[in-house]
Amino acid sequence: DPPKIDTKEKRALSPAESFELLEKLDVADNRHFALYLILCCGLRRSEVLGLEWRDVGDCIHVRREITKSDSGVRDIPLDDETMKMIEKRKQLVSSCLKSAGDRLRPGDRLCCGLDGRPLTPNALRLWWQRNNMADGLTLHELRHTFLTNLAQAGVHPAVMQKLAGHSSITTTMKIYTHVNNDDMAQAVKTMTVLRQSAPQSAPRAKLKKTGQDN
Question: Which pLDDT tens digit goes with each residue over 73-88?
Fold first, then answer.
């Protein structure tokens, strides 16, 4: 089913906290692998669990059958570390299936167990609720973290919209604007600290009178 409209303010991990969580993930666990793809590619839970091995190359192709909307159909480029993680997972699953007299097929799910059984959205949700590894954040807030980190890095909203598969730029702009408002607030605080730390005896600059306000 399409995701429900969620108006709650969402939290996000900082880039440093994201890296710390990624370091804890073990590719041998299909649930950890799903978290990795959500956090590094900004995928929705239903999208990441619907991906098949035929959808992966130098990018991840999110098909119409997975995302349920035209705007969600997209190609997400992969960085070197994510490609290594995916390849490591593929080799592990292939090896386990081969030991059982089977083989990995293009139509098999990425986030299957080592026995080939697919991981379901509900099973991942329940597991995450029991073993939350990110200070109480929801799975959707891990996706939100990906987008927030993009905004903090100054990525253009139109690019963010495409990577996220948002149907409206308005949704993307809410994230972008919120992040930039936070940055501006931090900049003002920095200036306050700078003024307070300045020597009290520092000479004041003299302004020339020109008859106009500058």
Answer: 999 999 999 999 999 9
| Contact status, residue 115 vs residue 96, Cβ threshold 8 Å | yes
Q: Which of 52, 47, 53, 49 is nearest to 73 (CA)?
A: 47
How far is Cα 6 from Cα 139, in angstroms, rounded to an integer?
A: 13
**Residues in CB range of 147: below 8 A, 6 or more apart:** 42, 160, 163, 164, 172, 175
Burial class (CB in 10 A: 0-12, 13-18, 19+), 113: middle
Q: List the structure tokens of 47.
A: 């999208």
Contact 43, 37 (CB under 8 A): yes
Residue 49 to residue 30: CA distance in whole angstroms: 10
pTM of the shown model? 0.80
Token readout for 195 is 């003024």
